[in-house]
Design a protein that fits this description.
It comes from Candidatus Epulonipiscium fishelsonii. This is Anaerobic sulfite reductase subunit A. The protein is about 30% helix and about 20% strand. By secondary structure, the protein is of the alpha+beta class. The strands form 2 sheets. The protein has an 8-stranded mixed β-sheet. The protein has a 4-stranded antiparallel β-sheet with strand order 5-4-12-11, with no helix packed on it. Strand 8 and strand 9 form a beta hairpin. Bound molecules: iron/sulfur cluster (SF4) (2 copies). One iron/sulfur cluster binds next to helix 7.
């Protein structure tokens, strides 16, 4: 069963959660886009359902609410270190079906990949998720090809219909709050798309033998190594470490972990001055094969969830879906040369 909430009851529901939860959702930042007269949609805390953008895709993903762009993990003096305090307040995140699949990829990498990541686990344990249904596919989405267009593993689902919000609930705490609001209940099926105009085909015989094929060369010139594709991606998880020494006392400071990108210069720098994947085409090859080949070998499903955000944001109009669709012919070339 589900609940139909008008704006007032929806905001009452939100208010009843605010003391216990930080609530993050895609929100419009006017004139915050690439150009001075364009808006951007990204994650931020919200106070009202009016602020949530339902009819457009967020340029950035939900991951910045759970895997912080910069996180201080401990403070140090000359001979002591103290872990930074952990904020125990719970978090509620509104996200799309594909993004909820993306969460599973983050969990696999941080929690099921050897020892659990302590800092991610602390944040992750306190988070619940609201899936926002997609009425129609957005530009560049290819979730159907990736099998990520539907996800039932949510705490709440929400669809906007005219001025009302249609909600289904699988969480006992939220169910009780909704029931107490005395709202009419009805059968609701959360929305999801069943087709996208962009489709991708990942060849069954894809292998690392494709690494030396010439398809990667075009990116040597086209890609400018800005890393934007990684930063918007819900499934990119790389970070780097930064030690900050305070200016008033250079022996005291803090260690932060900050987002990193396999596409930018310096990502593979090693002691002694050596670097791997100096050419941008090599970086593209690494990224593509990580997303649609190597992750699946370890975890059973592709890392890419087909959200299309990397296509939306690339200043060089490099399309990730196009690069996937070039793999089939390239593999034919590889096998015919064997
Ligand atoms: S690689 Fe691109 S399409 Fe795939 S999940 Fe990341 S941002 Fe989305
Ligand atoms: S966003 Fe485009 S130009 Fe920037 S690193 Fe990614 S592929 Fe290259």
């Amino acid at each position: 069963m589900g609940f139909i909430l008008n704006k007032i009851s929806a905001d009452n529901f939100l208010s009843s959660l605010k003391d216990e939860y930080y609530i993050f959702a895609p929100k419009c930042f006017e004139f915050g886009g690439t150009y001075s007269d364009t808006d951007t949609i990204r994650y931020s805390q919200i106070n009202s359902f009016d602020e949530i953008v339902f009819d457009k895709k967020s340029l950035y993903s939900f991951k910045e609410a759970i895997f912080h762009i910069s996180q201080t993990i401990f403070y140090f003096t000359e001979d002591q270190a103290k872990e930074s305090n952990f904020n125990p307040k719970k978090v509620l995140i509104f996200l799309r079906n594909c993004d909820l699949h993306g969460l599973k990829r983050l969990d696999d990498i941080y929690l099921h990949n050897g020892p659990e990541d302590h800092y991610y686990k602390n944040l992750r344990e306190n988070v619940k998720f609201v899936v926002m249904g997609c009425e129609n596919s957005f530009e560049n989405c290819f979730c159907v090809s990736m099998g990520t267009n539907k996800n039932d593993d949510y705490d709440l689902s929400i669809d906007k219909q005219d001025d009302n919000y249609l909600i289904t609930c699988k969480d006992n705490e939220f169910n009780k709050i909704l029931a107490d609001l005395n709202i009419s209940q009805t059968e609701i099926i959360p929305k999801f798309v069943t087709s996208n105009s962009v489709k991708v085909n990942i060849p069954d015989n894809l292998s690392n033998d494709i690494a030396n094929n010439s398809i990667w060369n075009e990116y040597d010139i086209r890609c400018i190594a800005c890393g934007r594709c990684n930063f918007v991606c819900p499934t990119c998880t790389c970070f780097s470490m930064q030690d900050i020494f305070y200016t008033d006392n250079g022996k005291v400071g803090e260690r932060r972990r900050i987002w990193a990108s396999c596409m930018v210069d310096g990502f593979t720098d090693m002691a002694g001055g050596h670097s791997y994947r100096v050419k941008k085409g090599q970086r593209m090859r690494y990224k593509v094969l990580h997303k649609v080949l190597n992750h699946k070998k370890r975890y059973g499903e592709h890392m890419c969830v087909g959200c299309g955000r990397c296509d939306d944001i690339c200043p060089e109009y490099i399309s990730f879906s196009n690069s996937i669709n070039k793999l089939e012919n390239a593999m034919k070339e590889v096998t015919s040369n064997e």
